[in-house]
């Protein structure tokens, strides 16, 4: 079966959009002429009686008002539809204005198309240094926060559970008597109750800390710093001050380390401070490290509440005694080694071992403190991480901060320190 072929004598081309609108205008013009003739015949009859003339004010309709013109043309034919003279004049003038705009658009560019709108140049906003600091702080907070949430390894709650099971096993083994199932269940129930109270206290501390940051605390809702009564000043330093405080509710004595935020930011010590706090949290339960009781902050200060060591530091003991007996020296040297070994077992290094940082407890044993220079290799504890965020934003925005002579000298020292590993790895020595 052969395919059917249709031959057309005069093939028709496809209508363009312009031809379609021209045909619509022609039809509307014809309808307008018919209506105008009807109106003129009526006005001529009315002229004989009143002696007044009414001119035809109809005009062509633009392409954008084809549908609107159809509605207006059919409106007088509908019963109950009336158009007053003023409204008809306004609609006529509106159609003329649209026609003029259509002509301007069609003559403004070739082919009647719209011309390209040229974008006007505008001034690039230049943020201040304070804004850059806030942006860098926000980015650092988000990265560190989600890194803690998504970090691999057991959570602090799981670590406490493991320590409890180990202590429970050692206690039953040391006593020589195996604990019954009821006793083990009672011990675990006690742990769950203590864990719930601990989590509740953490939520309360976090709420009060946020209230202090928002500066919304009042007499009935005090901040956490108001819960401690200052007894005396134990020491002062470049970072802040160490106070002997008493908890108003529990009436227990602690050592509170108050650190000024302004000094921390000015000296770029964010990484060291975060490392100190993280190490104290990781060393929970260790008997060779000064334990952390609480940590919080307000608008101007950071607070680290730790156990109070009434014996002072080991250097004060050496100054007071001048020399120690061999037995006592052997005892303290062994405890110093145990303190350092406890830090290394947590995969940290102290980097500031000296007699000043070993404190004597009420029982006479040594505990190590002052972890401002401690490091575990994590990126959030490295100062280069914070400086890169801050200065990279400044360089991208074209803000150049030279600093004073000391800052420039430190920058040159840092540059010289980076040239050595570069030469070792590449074998090319950089000059100048």
From TrEMBL:
Keywords: ATP-binding, Kinase, Nucleotide-binding, Serine/threonine-protein kinase, Transferase. Residues 68-81 have a biased composition (Basic and acidic residues). The keyword Kinase applies. Its EC number is 2.7.11.1. Residues 228-432 form the Protein kinase domain. ATP binds at residue 261. Residues 1-111 are annotated as: Disordered. It catalyses: L-seryl-[protein] + ATP = O-phospho-L-seryl-[protein] + ADP + H(+); L-threonyl-[protein] + ATP = O-phospho-L-threonyl-[protein] + ADP + H(+). PROSITE patterns: PROTEIN_KINASE_ATP, PROTEIN_KINASE_DOM. GO terms for biological process: intracellular signal transduction. One of its GO terms (molecular function) is protein serine/threonine kinase activity. SUPFAM superfamilies: Protein kinase-like (PK-like) (SSF56112). This is non-specific serine/threonine protein kinase. It comes from Canariomyces notabilis.
């Amino acid at each position: 079966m052969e395919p059917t072929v249709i031959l057309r004598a005069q093939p028709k081309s496809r209508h363009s959009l312009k031809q379609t609108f021209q045909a619509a205008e022609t039809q509307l013009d014809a309808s307008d002429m018919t209506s105008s003739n009807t109106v003129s015949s009526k006005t001529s009859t009315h002229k004989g009686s009143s002696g007044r003339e009414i001119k035809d004010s109809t005009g062509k309709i633009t392409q954008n008002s084809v549908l609107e013109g159809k509605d207006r043309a059919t409106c007088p034919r509908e019963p109950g539809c009336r158009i007053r003279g003023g409204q008809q004049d306004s609609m006529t003038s509106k159609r003329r204005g649209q026609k003029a705009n259509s002509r301007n658009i069609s003559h403004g560019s070739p082919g009647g198309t719209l011309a390209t709108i040229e974008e006007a140049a505008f001034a690039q906003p230049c943020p201040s240094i304070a804004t850059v600091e806030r942006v860098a702080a926000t980015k650092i907070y988000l990265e560190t926060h989600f890194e803690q949430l998504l970090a691999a390894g057991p959570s602090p709650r799981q670590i406490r559970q493991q320590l409890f099971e180990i202590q429970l096993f050692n206690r039953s083994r040391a006593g020589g008597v195996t604990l019954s199932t009821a006793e083990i269940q009672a011990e675990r129930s006690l742990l769950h109750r203590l864990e719930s109270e601990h989590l509740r206290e953490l939520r309360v501390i976090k709420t009060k800390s946020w209230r202090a940051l928002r500066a919304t605390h009042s007499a009935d809702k005090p901040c956490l710093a108001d819960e401690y009564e200052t007894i005396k000043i134990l020491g002062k330093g470049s970072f802040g001050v160490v106070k002997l405080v008493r908890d108003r509710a529990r009436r227990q004595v602690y050592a509170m380390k108050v650190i000024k935020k302004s000094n921390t930011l000015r000296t770029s010590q964010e990484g060291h401070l975060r490392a100190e706090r993280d190490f104290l949290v990781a060393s929970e339960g260790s008997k060779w490290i000064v334990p952390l009781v609480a940590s919080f902050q307000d608008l101007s200060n950071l607070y680290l509440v730790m156990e109070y060591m009434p014996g002072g530091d080991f250097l004060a003991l050496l100054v007071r005694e001048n020399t120690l007996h061999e037995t006592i020296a052997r005892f303290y040297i062994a405890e110093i080694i145990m303190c350092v070994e406890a830090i290394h077992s947590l995969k940290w290094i102290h980097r500031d071992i000296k007699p000043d940082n070993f404190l004597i407890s009420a029982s006479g044993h040594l505990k190590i403190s002052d972890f401002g220079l401690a490091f575990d290799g994590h990126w959030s504890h490295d100062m280069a991480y914070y400086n890169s965020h801050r200065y990279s934003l400044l360089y991208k925005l074209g803000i150049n901060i030279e600093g004073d002579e000391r800052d420039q000298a430190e920058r040159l020292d840092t540059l010289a320190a980076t040239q050595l590993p570069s030469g070792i790895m590449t074998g090319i020595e950089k000059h100048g």
